[in-house]
Amino acid sequence: MAPNKVDKERSIAFVVARMTSSRLPGKHFRMIGKKPLIQWITDQLRKCIQLDDIIITTVAEGANEPLRNFARKEKLPCFWYEGDVDHVTTRLRKAAETYNADICILISGDCPLVYAPAIDQLIQCLKDEPEADIVRIAHNENGLSAGLEGVCVARKRAWQLADDLSDRPEFKEHQFPVIGMHPELFTAKNCILPKNLYSLSHRFSIDTQSDLDFMNTIYHELSDKSLVFELPEALILLNQRPDIYSINRHVHQRKVDEIIKKVLFITDATSTCRHLDLSCCTDLASQIIEHLSWPLTFMTQNQCTENLLKELGFPVVSIDTGQASLHISKQTAANITSEYDLVLIDIRSNSDSIAEWINFCNKHKPVFFFGDTLADSYKKYIGSSKNIKPYYDFKKPMLINGLKPLIRYAESIKATLKP
Fold this sequence. Notes:
This protein folds into two domains: 11-206, Spore Coat Polysaccharide Biosynthesis Protein SpsA, Chain A, CATH 3.90.550; 263-417, Glycogen Phosphorylase B (Rossmann fold, 3-Layer(aba) Sandwich). The strands form five sheets. A six-stranded parallel beta sheet has the order 14-13-12-15-16-17, with helices on both faces. A five-stranded mixed beta sheet has the order 5-4-1-6-9, sandwiched between helices. By secondary structure, the chain is of the alpha/beta class. Helix content is 37%, strand content 16%.
C-alpha cells in the first residue's frame, strides 16, 4: 500500500462483508484452494500501490465476530457498523466518513478475483479527473465487458449523495444502485482496462455453492499448471476451457427490485445418516437457491441430518423440544414460520409430526410438498385450503434424467406464487 500522504487524496478500500449471507452463509471463510475467500481479496489489495488503507466493513452482529477477528489477525481496521443491518449504503458512507476517505473503493467481499493493477488504474483515473465523481469501466472495442467484478471507485461525495437518494429499502440494501439510476447527477470518467482483462460476460462473485465450485475449478486448473490464481490467468484459462462457465452459468443474478421469497424446508429425514437419504432434498434446495435466488433454510430435529446439512453448507433451524421428533407447540411453530414466505415439506416419511406441520402450515402459509407418494395420513389436510399447493410426483430423478425435474419443480413454485 502507498505511504501516508498529506497533500493528496486518501484512497481507501472498503471490503463489504457479512457472515449471514442468505444463500451461502459464512461464504467469506469458504475455502478456495488453500485460502479462504476473504484472504484472497485482502492479499490482492495489499499489492495496490494507490491504496492508503484497507477496511473490513461489516455490521455489529455476533455472527460477524469472525470478520472482526480476521481483521485483527491481519492487522487491518474493522468498521463495526451499529446501524440497520440492511442499510449497506449508509454503512459505507459512515465508514468513509469515519476513516476520512477522499476516494472510496468499494470491494465486494465475495469477489476473489479482484486485481491490484486494475484497481490502481481506476484510482489513478479518478485522481486525474478532479471534477469526476465516479469511474466507470468501459467496454473494449469489441464490446466485451471487463472481468473485474465487485469493484467501484468513487469520491466520498458521490457515496454521500447516493446514500441520501437511497430512499427505498431495496436501494439501501444494495451497493449504491442509485448511481447507475441517476447518471445525470454523477459525473463519470470512463476508463478502459488492459485487453487481457476483458472476456465474455459472466458472473465472478460467490453467492452460491455452484459459484464456489466454479472458483475452485479455476484455482485447481491453474494450480495444476503452476499458474497463479489471478484475474488475467483465470480469463486465459476460461478462453481455453469455456466449458468451465457451465458450472455456475445457471445461477440467477438478483435484480435490485426483485421480489425474494424466503423458504423453510421441513424434513423428518431418516436417521440412517446416509448422504443419499438427503440428496433429493439438498438438490432441490440448491435449485431453489440458484435458479430462483431465494434463500432457503432447513428445519429438522434429527441431529445426524442437521449435521449433514450443515456440513453441506445449508442453514438449519435447530429445535429443542426435549423430544426426538418434530412435535412442537403451535406458538413455537408460529414463531419459526413467521419469517418465511412459504413452506416446503418433505412427505417421504409417514409420521405424525409431519402431519402436524402440514396441518399448522395449511392454515398460515403457502405450502408445497416434496415426495413420490402422499401418505393417507396427510391427505385429509390437502385440498381444503387455498394455501395448499399440489405435491410433486418425484421418482428417482437422479437416476432417470438428472436435475430437470427439480428445476421444473423449483420454477413451478415461483410460477404458483406469482400475483
